Amino acid sequence: MDPDPKxxxxxxxxxxKAQEAIYRLYAPIMYGxxxxxxxNHMEAEDILQDGFIKVFMFLKDYRHEGSFGxxxxxxxxxTAINYYRLKAKEQADLSLDNLEFTASVDENIIDTIxxxxxxxxxxxxxxxxxxxxxxxxIEGYSHKEIASMLDIKESTSKSQLSRARGVLQNKILQxxxxxx
Length: 180
Hints:
This protein has helices spanning about 5-10, 15-35, 40-55, 70-90, 115-125, 125-140, 145-150, 155-180. By secondary structure, the protein is mainly alpha-helical. It has two domains: about 5-90, Rna Polymerase Sigma Factor, Chain: A (Orthogonal Bundle), CATH 1.10.1740.10; about 105-180, Arc Repressor Mutant, subunit A, CATH 1.10.10.10. Helix 2 (about 15-35) packs across helix 4. The radius of gyration is 18 Å and the shape is globular. The termini are far apart.
């Protein structure tokens, strides 16, 4: 899904029509990425806007190695991570070590909820859990890579993923029991 190289060149020349074309091509997909990392639609829109500003600002650094779409995607992930870091500095640390969660859950339970419900539950996760969950489960990064990206210990990444899964499992079970 890479755009015509002329569009990329147009963006480098700061052509508003080329920028709009790139925006229209990637905004729907990148908004989905932003939603996974944000707590709500408003934050997702902020991340989307920041992401496109960075895409256009740093387009000169794109080396034409790999796909342009992959480069844009990575830019948005980095934007979401930076947004998370900024928010983390602004908020007081929350201790979630006392959260209880179930060790296992019915494998088919995920089939009982919609994608939007699952996205909503992911958005309700505490920021650290949400970031690690998205980077690991959705994006496929290793705990070592996540630790490096978020400037945390690898063991912290592992524990936050485990806790995120547990919290999600409890929320899904609760959602399922409320439907009965």
